[in-house]
Amino acid sequence: TTPLNTAAKAAGKKYFGSATDNPELSDSAYVKILSDSTMFGQITPGNSMKWDATEPSRGTFTFTQGDQIANLAKANGQLLRGHNCVWHNQLPSWVTSGNFNAATLSSIITTHCGTVVGHYKGQMYSWDVVNEPFNDDGTFRQDVFYNTLGQDYISIALNAARAADPNAKLYINDYNIEGTGAKSTAMVNLVKSLKAANVPIDGIGVQAHLIVGQVPSTLEANLRQFTALGVEVAITELDIRMTLPATDALLAQQKKDYQTVIAACRAVSGCIGVTIWDYTDKYSWVPSTFSGQGAALPWDANLNKKPAYDGIVAGFAS
Ligand code: G3I
Fold it and tell me: What pTM, to 2 d.p., does this model score?
C-alpha cells in the first residue's frame, strides 16, 4: 500500500504529517514508523512548544523538549509545524494570574512569541501563532489575553512571530471550524479584518477532531471560503473518534470518514496538507478526555494499520 506522504504529494499537497510527543520517543517501534518520511513528511510537537513548556516562569525559556522534536524532524527530513504561541490552555499561572495591564501583557506576548518563534527561525514550515481564539458561537474566547487586550492580542502575536521568522507561515488554528457555521464565519471575519489592517496572516488551521459518522457535509465548501480570503488552509489535528468498542462497522465508517476529509482537502488547491493528531491509538489524547471513546487514529494501539489507513490513501487518489 502507498505510504501516506507519498500519496499526499502525488495529490499535489505539501505533506501528510503526524503530531508526536516527547515521552513517546522512547518507544522504538513507534519512532521507526514516525521517522519514515514517505509516511509522514511533517511532524508537530503535541505539547513541548506550548507556553507552559517553553516559558514556565517569566523570561526563563526552555527549549530542550521542543528541540528534541525539531531535531527529529531535521534528522528525518520532515517539515515542522510549530504549535503554539498563544493559547488559553497549558498557560502557566504567572500569565493567567499575573493581573498584568494591557501594556505589560502586550510586551509579554511579544517577548514570548518573538523568543519561541525566533529560537526555531528557519526550521518551521508554519506556526500556529494563535490557537483556539473563538467560542463555539463565534464570539471571542474570554481568556486572559482577550480580557486584557481585546482582539489586539492576535495582531500583537502575529506581528511578533513575523518579525522573529519572516519565512514561517503564520496560522490561526481552531476546532469546530470544519463545517460552515457561526464559528467559521467568525474566523472569516477575523482574517478579513487582519488583512485589511495589514497584519501578517498566512493560513487557517482546521483542527478536525471529528466523530465517526459526523463529518460535516460542508467541509469542502468551508475550506473554499477560507482559501478565498487569500490564505492557505491546513488540516492540523485530524482524528475521528468513536464510542468503544471498535466494531467492524464502526471501523468501516471511520475509513469512509477519513476518505471524505482527505478528499475535501485534495479537492481544494489551497489546502496544503493534513496532519493527524498522532498516528496510533496507543498515544491518542481522546480516551483520557472523552470517557468511553477512542480508536480515533489510522493505526491501532499495537501499531497495526486500520481500515482508516486505506481511506486516507483513497482520499488522496480520488
Ligand atoms: O506535563 C504534565 C506532567 O508533569 C504531569 O505529571 C502529568 C500528569 O497528568 O500531566 C502532564 O501534563 C499533561 C500534558 O498533556 C503533557 O503530557 C496534561 O495533563 C494533559 O492534559 C495534556 O494533554 C494535552 C492537551 O492538548 C492539553 O490541552 C494533550 O497531550 C495534547 O495532545 C492536546 O493537544 C490539543 C492541541 O494542543 C490543541 N487542540 C486540541 C488538542 C487536543 O486536546
Answer: 0.98
